[in-house]
Write a structure and sequence with these properties.
The structure holds two protein chains of two kinds. Chain A is an all-beta fold. Helices cover about 0% and strands about 45% of the residues of chain A. In chain A, the strands form two sheets. In chain A, strands 1, 3, 4, 7, 8 and 9 form a six-stranded mixed beta sheet that branches. A three-stranded antiparallel beta sheet of chain A has the order 2-6-5, with no helix packed on it. In chain A, strand 3 and strand 4 (about 45-50) form a beta hairpin. Chain B contains no helices and eleven strands. In chain B, strands 2, 4, 5, 6, 9, 10 and 11 form a seven-stranded mixed beta sheet that branches. The N and C termini of chain B lie far apart (about 40 Å). Classes of the chains: A mainly beta, B mainly beta. Chains A and B meet through strand 7 and strand 8 of A and loops of B.
Chain lengths: ~110, ~120
């Protein structure tokens, strides 16, 4: 059982927006700004999409955005494209030099 | 362009030690202030952080694995390694090595290597 809770699946049509949630506790997401999101296509290594709640690494489209409210973080993908179909994982610093992940959300572009 | 590549046995027997090496190419592992770490993913399941090592040699481990994990770095070979002892079938996973600009996130990953624990 993962430390952070994500919905198993999410979906949207091309051009639409979809938001994926990641729920933790005050000991992880709620206590720090260190929430990250990773995209993973089948058979590939994860790719960093968002770090420190809302920061985008160079090269990541601005269609991807992150936010946090209380113990829940969110990843929003705007203007959905076919290549956005993938698994998405959140992670959070959990104090005492510990890092925890969510169970992952499979995003389907309809 | 910096690249990471995992290597090691693809099959390990129960109760034995899993040993993997990550070779860093295209840059020096010791010339920058990064953490270097390991993350694993059981087949069909989510990601699990194993641990990180800093250039100074400081290590940080997942509390649930801490008693069985050792991560070390060999700057002369531009490599860092993972040793996981007393493995069981539950340790079967794809193991990724990664670069961490901070302890909290990874911005560069290896392709991963599948390690199966079976007799």
């Amino acid at each position: 059982q993962s430390a952070l809770t994500q919905p198993p699946s999410a979906s949207g049509s091309p051009g639409q927006s979809v938001t994926i949630s990641c729920t933790g506790t005050s000991s992880d997401i709620g206590g720090y700004i260190y929430v990250s999101w990773y995209q993973q296509h089948p058979g590939k290594a994860p790719k960093l999409m968002i770090y420190e709640v809302s920061q985008r690494p160079s090269g990541v489209p601005d269609r991807f955005s992150g936010s946090k409210s209380g113990n829940t973080a969110s990843l929003t993908v705007s203007g959905l494209q076919a290549e956005d179909e993938a698994d998405y994982y959140c992670s959070s610093y959990a104090g005492r030099n510990n890092l925890v992940f969510g169970g992952g959300t499979k995003l389907t572009v309809l | 362009q910096l690249q990471l590549q995992e290597s090691g046995p693809g099959l390990v027997k129960p109760s034995e030690t899993l040993s993997l090496t990550c070779t860093v190419s295209g840059g020096s592992i010791s010339s920058s202030s990064y953490y270097w770490g390991w993350i694993r993913q059981p087949p069909g399941k989510g990601l699990e952080w194993i641990g990180n090592i800093y250039n100074s040699g400081s290590t940080y481990y997942n509390p649930s694995l801490k008693s069985r994990v050792i991560i070390s770095v060999d700057t002369s070979k531009n490599q860092f390694s993972l040793n996981l002892s007393a493995v069981t079938a539950a340790d079967t996973a794809v193991y990724y090595c990664a670069r961490h600009p901070t302890l909290m996130h990874s911005d560069l990953w290896g392709r991963g290597t599948l390690v199966t624990v079976s007799s």
